[in-house]
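Form 12-C: Joint structure prediction
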Amino acid sequence: MSPVVWVPCDAAAVSVGADAVADALAAAGATVRRNGSRGMLWLEPLVEVETDRGRVGYANLEPGDVGALLAGDLDDGGRCVGVVDEHPWLARQHRVSYTRVGVIEPTDLAAYREHGGLAGLERALTLSAEDVVQEVTDSGLRGRGGAGFPAGIKWETVRTAEADVKFVCCNADEGDSGTFADRMLIEGDPFTLIEGMAIAAAATGATEGFVYLRSEYPHAIRTLRRAIDIAYAHGVLGASVLGSGHAFDLDVRVGAGAYICGEETSMLDSLEGRRGEVRAKPPIPALQGLFGKPTVVNNVLTLSAVPMVLADGGAAYAALGTGRSRGTQVFQLGGNVAQGGIVEADFGITLRELVEDFGGGTASGAPVKAVQVGGPLGAYLPPSRFDLPMDYEAFAEAGAMVGHGGIVVFDDTMDAGAMARFAMEFCAKESCGKCTPCRVGSTRGVEVIDRIRAGTQREANLVLLEDLCATMTKGSLCAMGGLTPMPVRSALEHFPEDFGVPAAQADAVTDDMPESATSTDGGARP
Amino acid sequence: MDDVPQRGPSPAPAPAPADAARAAAVRALAEEMAGMRGPLLPVLHAVVAEHGYVHDDDVPVIADVLNLSRADVVGVVGFYHDFRRTPPTTHRVSLCRAEACQARGAETTYAAATDRWAASTEVEVGEVFCLGNCALGPSGTLDGALHARLTPERLDALTEGWRA
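Section 2 - Result
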């Protein structure tokens, strides 16, 4: 009998040659199955061979290793990582949303069901819409896109709104650098997202849904489209979801390379076929969203947590986590990190555990200088702040944000002044242009930082920069202009020397800054 | 509108006018999708997939089919990076310059690539902000295929067969 081997089809694995390895294994007579990635990205391509003990993994495989692999010659060296399920990096995690990613073939609906899939949707369809929303409210689930708004409250608003048609929109425009959990979930276990959206539709009375997925993710687009076709063929989607009589149609819409379309109202305009410009709120999308109709807009990870919430009950999910941050978060370790990838853990895990224990320090071997948490709009934090627990409120108090759970590691060659300048430059490049603080402030921000770094009237320009940051924070229409000051201010606060500023002088300026300049209020609107 | 006299420096040479066959093909694409909700982005994606870019002469055709103004269509085409308005080059390098890839040396790779192909008419070097491959950077795509750990040396090796 030919050996059964698993080769990830995830884009990260493909980017380091997984397709060629799969072809070589098939040519050598092995039965090749394609799974998502386990999330241990530094080991990719991580090939797993089925044995009596379980699936045994072999790291960093190349096509030339295939003969040795099948002959058993790789069993002793450092390439064999043992039974993958027992790998300490995975065993220490708590995989809830990611429980099937890397384990099953992504579009195998039968395997999905065998591994617990559809239990949540089946239960939801036996409950009243009100009770489904109540479960989500009880779970304490908050928006995973970054703002952390309670999902149950949003759903209840849509449920009680009167309209001829309602929508569920999944925001999969994962444009933040250092985040890739949406992509890997869609590529590795797309039915979880589809199931979560079907539950959201049943709970709110929505009959149509869209996944707004970035064009930069072609693998995810292909996998999700195939999964949706299969879901229709098996009655998970369509005129009567699992025979319940509730109709739900789902379509994928592809973004077009605009970062701002990850902002929910801008995404809605883009879905409507317009320039992705931010809308003023109110009205909130829950009441007047897509085409002016009541719309649930949630991130991929929010919707993907829902099947488990419904299957096991809201209370089980609420039992995980800390403070007002309930459940698990899918953290992503990226940048200059030795062991990058996906770490799903209960809220409350510290930054140090993530960066040092899971991440293993930098890839370059040099000391960690800083991490940026929560994407390009998140704060830069030095190792002295690594004891912060991952918790929305604790991070907000520290002038930072959890965001979408992305953690980008930098070694000691990082120039924090250059990164602050880049934050402003990126905002200028990707601003939708609708509001002045963001559109103009970001360009002025680049200029002011340049003057500070060049030593031109440094003291006056530091005051000007702070003034500009306050204006952007308070005056911008959305989180893009509102949060761009966060990386800038945190870089200046923790690394003034990179701006040519003596620490004492930077302290004097940052101490004057109003508390709100570092709050996440700009991103916390429903 | 072509009769308006030009003022100031002449613009870069525009692609030749689209022929009738292209206009008919674009019209057919747009008509096929006109029944969707919010069809403009899917139509523009289809035009780029099929014809490589959005030609100025495609705009009135799409506007007509979707019952939009030309200004609406031009506004959308111009807003999004994906809707290129000139024919694509033979090869395309697209390198991530976002934070996670910068932390792994993306700027060095980007500088090397722009230098190497500065004068090329065959190879276009573009920037992208995040391909979702943040643990294995610097990331980039070569003719659309995703690659990781793109040092200047690796980029050279992968593009060895390219002319220019």
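Section 3 - Comments
The CA atoms of residues 25 and 487 of chain A lie 46 Å apart. Confidence is low (pLDDT under 50) at residues 514-526 of chain A.
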